[in-house]
Structures are given as structure tokens and as C-alpha cells.
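Appendix B, Record 12. Input sequence as logged:
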Amino acid sequence: MDKDREGRGHRHGGGHGHGGAERVHRRFGVRALSWLACLSCSLSVPASAANFEVTGDVAAQGYEVASPWSDVVVGRRRLTTTLGLAGYNLQGDAEPLGPDYSLRLRMRVDSDFGIAGAEEQYNARDARRFVPGLDHAPVDLMIGFVEGRRLGGGWFGFRLGRQYVTDVLGWWSFDGGMVRLTTPFFVQAEVYGGMEQRGGLPLSSERYAAQGVWRGSRSELGPDGRNYPSFQDASPAPAFGFALETTGPNWIHGRFAYRRVYSTGPVLTGQFPTPGTTEFEEVEGLRLSTEKFGYGATAFLSEIGALRAGFAYDVYNDLINKAYGGLEFYPITNRLVLGADIDFFVPTFDADSIWNWFTHNPVTTLLGRASVRPVAGLDVSGSAGVRLWVAEGDPEGWALAECTAAGGGPAAIDTCLAMGTDPSAGSDGTFAREEDNRDATIAPDLLANLGAGYRWSNGNVGLSGVLQNGFGDVDSHRGRMVGGVLTARQALDGGTLWLGGRLSTTNWEDPLRPARDATSFGYVVAPEYWPAGFARMRVQWEHDMNRLVGQRFRVLGLVSLRVAP
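Logged structural output:
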């Protein structure tokens, strides 16, 4: 994920700050991390009732990513710091069935010293290098909440602050409160509300918001919208939801979830000014962002296997955007597991996103899998199946049919195919709109994975391979990717020193772009030093190469600490 952050200019999301306010938010985050670091020193004194835990990571890395034409397009020097605090039994002496209060907090600062000034600050003379929303030191409050459990005789619980929700609707984060009701009838209810965590807001990240909108601060881009009109101002996003969940029986678990999120503030609705003016059209006010509900369930059958199934329904798009099912079976012993899975997915987007206007079709994956542990320490697993891509119209013959419908004879058709331009203007746009030309076409891919690993008391080794191959003959197949990875890790000097490494190779072919076919090779060397039980240090050297980009290097240094008196 770290490597992708510099590409925010081509993704959805961004930074926020409104001038001086951004610097205030950043200073506040850095000061908060410093305060937590000082607090960790005081936690070395044993507590009589409450228990505290402090964790921290510091990772330094440097790398360069070159284009296929050998021009260095991304050069980064990063220092990522995370600091976490957890407090348990804040009420005093713990009672098995009594009230329990806890605190959890984790923050992250991802400083990047490789960002050039032209990338972060807009300059009309060098606008092509500017990335809206890019911040060289964003502060992300990952979680920060107070929790109470077993209140009111065990009926009630709550969370207050920044928190996660994980269910069939996916990972989601918000700032607000959640109230939980646990009944003696094997049913638990949750009601929550607050503000969705969105990129561009203070101490926030875009990773948990709906896709399809690029948000941040437009304070440096001018008020008229001429620069980067697709980059929208971030505004608070009110949200609420509820869930009903089984509790008690350990052989079955189910959860129904509903969530609704609103957008506020103005949003530009076009890439160009209104004809005859210099003004951009925009929409303001409270409006729907996302609305979904879904249900997921799992049943565990002792010594036999397990079943799971679920779905999520997108109310705004009026479709089931996710559905899955799976089973596991232990035919002889739990050392042998056989399974099958089906996964159905349709991409959906924020209601403000232009991507809702475009066609988006489902992808269905069907897999059979098996794993076995023949002897202690040895695991072997594999899977095989197909992935079905659905498109409107036949991709193999669409271009020729559309160019033929435009008319003009063989020479015009050849020109149309060579130029790759849209011939709809010459055919009055009727070809693409006719339903007879838009029948669903399924294009299957073959998937296969195979892996084996062996563990011993102070080390392990693993080997894995992957294959994805498009069906079709030599002239029509849609490409292939095949690769393998060998990993190993061994403790030295009684576990104080560890040495790890990885070798990998990947080959891919793309019939549409045969000049991009290549084989990539890479290796990693990663020694570790554990001076004490609460500290861990690692240095990682990574070298990847192929004929398209030449040599790529990455150096990573990591220090992890965990203090729990």
C-alpha cells in the first residue's frame, strides 16, 4: 500500500488541509505521537489494576520505480512511524461478569522525503508534476476509541471514537458512537452513527470510503475549478447503521448489517465550464453517498466440515454487488481438507462518482481446493478453477463490427481499425445502442495455485506457484501469467538473530501488447535482530529485474517495539 500512495493523482482520494489548518492538524498529530511516546515511559511502572500496552514501529525505506523506457518516474525516501496504546481493566479490579472498560489508540505518520516541491505545491508553469492531495507527512489516526462491555448486568456495551466495522459489507471506519445490546436469546444488536472516515479530512485516510471520487482540498487550485475539476473538496459525511448478530452458540454465526452514508458540501458535475461561461456546474446539500445491506452466515459441523454464505445489496445501484458461498469437508481426518468456493462481485461506486454512468459487469470466481498435513510441520495445499469475466458485446469482434457499421468501404474500415477511433458519429451511434449487439459475453480464465511449506522449531521454508491463463487458441487467447516464489527463514544464535530470504520469478504474455511480454526475477535478503522480547529490528534488501524496466531496488529498515508491563 505504501508504494501506491504517490499515485493518488490517478486514484480516488487525497489530502486536505485548507492552508494553515492543514499545518495545524499535522502539528497536532505529531505532538500527539510525542505525547504517547512520553506516556509509554510512565507505563514501565507496574499498575495494580489497569493494564497498559504500548506498541511502536519505525520503518525507513528508499526505492525507485522506472518506466519501461528507463526514465525514473518515482523516487521515494520514506519514514513511516506508528504508535499504539491499549489500556485494559480501566475500571479497576476485573470481575469475570462485571463491567469492563478499555482504551485503544493507534496513529501513523508516513513521511516522504522524496517528494519534490512541484509535486506537492501547484505551479501553473510545472502543472504536469503536481498531484492534488499529495502530502509529504500525512497523519492518520487509525483507531482511537473507549469501549465499555458487560454494562447493566451484561446487557449493554458501547464504543466511542474512531473505530472499525467489519462484516459482509466490507471494512469500514467512522468517527462516532456504537451501542450494543446483548440479549440472553442468542441475539445481539448494534446501532452506530457518526461521520465516515474520508480522505482529505483531518487525521483521516481514504481507504475505507466508497470508490470513485477523488477528494481533498482545492485551496491551492483556485476557486473557479479550471484546474483539476475532478478533484473534489472533502466535506463531512454523516452516516448511520445497525446490525443483528447471533451470539452464544459456537457452531453457527450470522450477521445482518445495514449502512447508509451521506455526502455534504459542493461537488463539481462536469469537466468543462458551462457553454458560454467560465463557471462550472455544481451540486450542493445533503445527498446519498452509499446505502447497502447484507447478510453473512457460517456453520461449523464438528468433525465434518463447515458451510458459509453471504450477500451484499447496493440500494443506490439496485443490484447485488457481492455474493459468496463455500464449503469445507474433512473426508477422513482434519489433516485433509477439501473445499469449494464461489465468489460473485460487481464493482460499485460513491453516488457522486461519474463511474456510475459507465457499464460495470460482474466477475465470478469458482475454485476447488485441497490441503493436507501428511506429517508434523509439513503443509501442502492447492486450488484450481475459473474466473468468468462478463462484457456487453463480443470483445473479439466488436471493433470490426462497429467499423463496418460506420460504412465507407474496405479502406475506411481499415483506417477505422488502425486509428482506434469511435466510428459512432458516422453511424449515428446506433450500433453501440442496439441491444442485439450488447448480448452478454463470458470470457473465462483458468486459475491454479500450488504451495507447500515445512516448519521446524526455529525456521521454515516454503514454495508456491501461481497460474492465470486466458482460454483460447494461439490467435485468440487473452494472455498468461505464471510465477513461483521460494521463501526461507532460519534462527541463529539461539533466536537472537534471524535470516530470511525470498526468490521469485514471473512470466507474462499479453497478445494485445506482445512488446510487453517479459520474465521478471527478484530476490530479497532480510536479516533480523531480536535483542529482547519487546524489540525487533530488520533490514530488507530487495532487487527486481526484467527487460522492460531494467533494475529496481528497494531498501527497508524496520524497528518494532512492544511494552506491556
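Residues 7 and 131 are 8 Å apart (CA to CA).
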